[in-house]
Structures are given as C-alpha cells and as structure tokens.
Amino acid sequence: MNVDRVQVLAHRIAAHGLHRAGADAAELAVFDLGLQDSMRDTALLGLVARLGGEVTPESLVDDDRLALAWSHRGAPHFHRRAGLAELTASLVPLDEADALARIMWQRKQVREAGLDALEVLFTTARAIRKVVKGPMTKGAVSTAITKILPPAFSRWCRGCDATHVHEQLMRVATPHAGVRLEAGESPATLAPLEDRGPIRTKPDVAAATRVVERYLRINGPAAPGDAAGYVGTTRSALDRMWPEGLAEVDVDGRRTFLPADLLPALENPPEPDLVRLLPPLDPFVQARDKAVLVPDPARQKEVWRMLGNPGVLLACGEIAGIWRTKSAGKRLAFAITAFDPLRPADRDAAEAEATRVATARGFTAPTVTWLP
C-alpha cells in the first residue's frame, strides 16, 4: 500500500481514540502500551483528550484497574494492573547491549566502571526489593539502596548535595523488583506490588514482541528504528522483537510496517475533523517519526524541546500549534500559538477544549490568548 502522511495521521488519530468513541478509561487503546505521566497532569489530560464527559484526577488515581510504574525508557506510565507481570517480562533486556541501551544516559558510567550492565540492573533490582516493604518516598529508597550497593552504582549529585544511585538505573530496575509508584503522591512514592513473584532475569522475547506490535498498532505504520526509539533499545535487539504478520506500507517513499489486519483501517480512516489540546508527552506525540507528525524542522523544534515541551494543538488532522498554561490562584491562563491561521470554528473548539482541560485540573473558566 502507498499512502501519504495525511492519511497516516488520520489513521493514528482514530487508533489513539481521539474521536472520543470510548467511555471507559481503562479500555482506551493507549493503555495497551501505557499512558505516560512524566509532567504535571499529562496522563490526566491524555484522558481529557480521549474521553467525553467529566474527567477528574480520580479517573486515574482511584481506578483500581490501573497502576503507575516506571516502565518504557524508565518513564512513569499508567498501565492496566492486570498486565503488569507481562509488562515487566517485556522489559528484561535481551542481551548486554540491550541492557546498556535501556540504562540510556548513564551507560557511559557503567562502561567506565567496567561493569556488566545486566548484573548492575538486577543487583539494583534485588536491593530495591530488599528495601521496599511498604510505601517509601523515592528519596528514602535511593538513600537506602545506595548504602548497600557497590560505590560504582552511585554518583555525587550536586542538586541533592549527596551521593546516590544513578537515577536512570533506579528507574529501570524498579519494575524488576516488583515495585510500582503510588499514583497521585508527591514526592514520588514507591510501593511493592501486592502479588509480585520472583525476580525474572530470563528474557521473554514474546512479551517484548507484543510491546513492539502495540506500538505499531497505535503509531503505525512505522519503521523498525521508530519502534526501537520508543522501546529504548538497539536495532539489533529490536530485530529480535520484530513481530510477524506485518504488511509493508510506503509512506511518502519511506518503507514502514503495520499489522496486516489494520490495512483496511489505514485505507479508509474516519475524517479527522476534530480539535484537541494534547498535553506534553501525550502518546500521539511520542511517535518517533517526527517528520510524519510535523514535516517542518523549525516547527519540530517548537513541539519537541530539550526541556519543557509544550502541549500541542491538534486540528483537522494536523499538529497545528502549541499551547502553554500559567496558573494564578484558581484561574488558568492559556497561551495558544497556531502555526497557520485557523478557521473561526476551530478556534472556538480549541477554547472549548481549554475549558475542559481547566475543569479537569480543578480550575475555574480559563482565559485564552492567541499568540502570533
């Protein structure tokens, strides 16, 4: 099949549930992969964009079917609680190179110390399991495990004025320890899973493959490198996780892949005539093929920043702008920048979405400023 990026985006908008056809949060397709919650209210606002009716923080925190955990790339995600065992299995590195890749920005320190990344990962997981017997703040856990881990696992942190275990190492080891995050708690609080089994160190290629397939189901058609970037692994490891039953799709001359059963949906997606305010790090903008989402390199720099990503304005099938908020008491002020002129109806719809976002966060009616 040959398609262009406009058709791909229409298909993804439907796959992400952004038409608000679903009514049950836990049944949303994004939970097949996980709903990231790295910045204030990002997961909550991901629900606002996908569910009709009232959405409140309790929609996530009080739903016993959902649990918060450090998972993909060490980032906190809400997952279906029933799928946590399979999720943890999917995160077991396939080999040493895969383990180093998952440790990400701290792999340099692991290499310099001459350590085996797999041993470092699971030694840290065992330490976390030993320490976390009940709810504990992240800082308390870090202090406790630093005392029992080898010095090479730690570093001096200027911001904390203390020596503690490497941040990313702690994050990627925690799910293997059978430990989750307490939703809605600040500072970050860890707690043991209620029914955790023994620590699993043997790779589960089938579980890892299902993660890649789920990525392709909501962010496809996509290339192997896109999926590797999302998982946070190497291309060689990704090749071992690559699913069967995929169809090849040419997207504006780029070779990509999609589960074959989704070809009819890609061929005839619903019209994306909707307006949504997506939060920073929403699953829709987590797709790694940025040129498909936003072809203009200058606009890519506005959407994906090194620090402090804005939210994005989705209008008529395109990422059409960015938005930020500033709070003052009970009021929330929105500043929206459209990349190109919008139809009056789309501006009105964006302002209505701003009201939904403000209400979900507990603010009164917002003010909206359109910036040039």
Automatic annotation (TrEMBL):
Q: What Pfam families does its record include?
A: AlkZ-like
Write down the superkingdom of origin: Bacteria
Against InterPro entries, the record matches this protein to: AlkZ-like
Q: Which PANTHER family match?
A: LMO0824 PROTEIN (PTHR38479), WINGED HELIX DNA-BINDING DOMAIN-CONTAINING PROTEIN (PTHR38479:SF2)
Name of the molecule in the record: DNA glycosylase AlkZ-like family protein
The organism named in the record is: Amycolatopsis samaneae
